[in-house]
């Protein structure tokens, strides 16, 4: 018996939800309201697409792809909010990772810089990098949900690595604004 | 590769790898329980389809048009005398009911026609229509919602038996015969025709038709039109016994009527009121801001004209839909849609406002590009037919435009 689309999505929610959630939390660095919003928004977007194409085969991977893109959007917004706050006179205190707090805080700084760098490169590069390097999606699956060939995925990954390394080398360690 | 050093200093090549490693090792707690109870958006769909292209109606409309084509084919098959053509057409005309299986781009359903009434059963959707009254009701079984669809230029409510009116010449040639599951063989032919399916609407169709040699009636046909995709109509049976209950448009007691009827629309906003509805990305529209609660929105705009699933606040009189998001019981405004296209919103007015850069419903693609620049690269699944709707996303502004026929038909903002 053919599974109705609404039931298919419930199955995806049950079986793949924790994986999408994990990716979102890792990208954003927290599991608060922003993460919940990303989770819901990406699920609704996935359900809308599934309703159009009625192909559930890559739902889990596609959800991660959408979730990664929404999470990067959130990072951009946070940085933008932080900029607005700073321009309004709210001085952000930054720490020098060489002389500042312990390794745990230094790791936090690095992660903040990494997120900021992700927000500045093209979304498709950032998503390709996150899906394959942070989430362990296979190149074939990542290429499938990104709508590119495996060869082109390799190009995207190379460009992402070059851009991210450059930005991490020269980043200005300003914190993201966290509500 | 430079290894991660205890004192926190990372080699250049090691910083990226260290960042990736740190991100991968983040402990993730279980997500909040309410996120396990999300329901697929049966209503909310920030995806564009034209008014008469909503899925079920398009499906059924395509089918009706395909069956109309059958009449043209019958009337113009080469090598048959005009009297035979007329007789064949008359054979179809005297039938009063039919049923068939339909398949549109992989979506399957059943079609029943009795005089001016029709019923289409799709995947979780049933549409019942009457061309005589122009009434059309859609039932969605998964959500127990019923939609009274407004009278439309092109709808399922076509008078099938009245379509045998203008016969156009088509060029047809024989194709391989079709053999059904019982082993019966039916000769076929293919051709092209322009089918007039509404007073102001025509489709150019490529079609293949297979007919029963015993009675000349069609049993199977395929057609493709620019706006309708590939359609297969199979196992066509003329004059089956059809129960009247199939065409009952009464709303079952366990269903909720979604949306409003045209007479329920509130008065349109004045020009001054409409001009105050400025959509500011990341901020809101007019006085309504992202992050507001339902009560705050109601305090500004008044009660929604209708609400669905508690979180979709609809103001169709001003062409706006607000979507609340967040923890259950603490939802706040997260999405604003100007000119929503979900089925419940088919009865509404166009959004009278504009964005902070002057883009409004009806603006051109070029105007959007001039205002916001080049849009983000398309996502997989955003493909649209050459002359169909497409979407332009501006992720940095959390803004999306939908186009139909090269004009802005929807604006979506998220916080």
Question: What can you tell me about this protein's structure?
Answer:
The complex is a heterodimer of chains A (179) and B (415). Chain A is mostly helical. Chain A is 74% helix and 0% strand. Chain A has 7 helices and no strands. In chain A, helix 5 (123-134) packs antiparallel against helix 6 and helix 6 crosses helix 7 (150-170). The termini of chain A are far apart. By secondary structure, chain B is α+β, with helices and mostly antiparallel strands. Chain B has helices at residues 12-24, 55-76, 82-93, 271-275, 294-301, 365-372; strands at 97-104, 107-114, 117-121, 125-130, 135-140, 145-149, 172-179, 185-198, 201-211, 218-225, 229-238, 256-258, 278-280, 284-285, 288-289, 306-308, 312-315, 320-325, 332-338, 354-355, 390-394, 399-404, 407-414. Chain B has a 12-stranded mixed sheet with strand order 7-8-9-10-11-1-2-3-4-5-6-12, covered by helices on one side. In chain B, strands 16-17-18-19-23-22-21 form a 7-stranded antiparallel sheet, covered by helices on one side. A 4-stranded mixed sheet of chain B has the order 15-14-13-20. In chain B, strand 21 and strand 22 form a beta hairpin. In chain B, helix 2 (55-76) runs antiparallel to helix 3.
